[in-house]
Amino acid sequence: MIALWLVWAAAADLAWVSVGAPGEQAVHSELALGLDEIGLRDAAPPDGFAAMPVAEQVDALRPLLADDEVRAAAWLDPNPGDGLRLHLVFATETRAVVRLVEAGDAAELALAVRELLAEPPPAPPPPPAPEPAPLP
């Protein structure tokens, strides 16, 4: 089980869990340099997280993402091929948006993550449409 995930908190914290994925140390160093206004802190992934399909990973992170101080979660793919692949998830109670970021090296990946975190969070879903009034 190899995975890395990150959490961006509104309180300017970015938490991550390192469980041995290739390139983790380099990504951590580049994020520490590139996200200078955001602090890095440690967190632990759920058991079996790396082996779960992406939908289950998102579901496993929902309790964490329900915290008002947490804006997003991300993890480094343990089997990216030639380079690095990161899943970035923005989630609310009723909606999740997953972004896949691929890069050739840690510096390029950290820059892409920084750009995505600078974007506004996904808008909440619109309220349900009112029921039509019955015809007389």
What report would you give on this structure?
By secondary structure, the protein is α+β, with helices and mostly antiparallel strands. Helix content is 26%, strand content 29%. The chain contains three helices and six strands, in the order ββαβαβββα. The chain has helices at residues 24-34, 54-65, 106-118; strands at 4-9, 13-18, 39-42, 70-76, 84-91, 96-103. Strands 3-2-1-4-5-6 form a six-stranded mixed β-sheet. Strand 2 (13-18), helix 1 (24-34) and strand 3 (39-42) form a beta-alpha-beta unit. Helix 1 packs across helix 3 (106-118). The chain is elongated and about 70 Å long. The termini are far apart.
Give a topology summary.
Layout: E1 4-9, E2 13-18, H1 24-34, E3 39-42, H2 54-65, E4 70-76, E5 84-91, E6 96-103, H3 106-118
Parallel strand pairs: 2-3
Antiparallel strand pairs: 1-2, 1-4, 4-5, 5-6
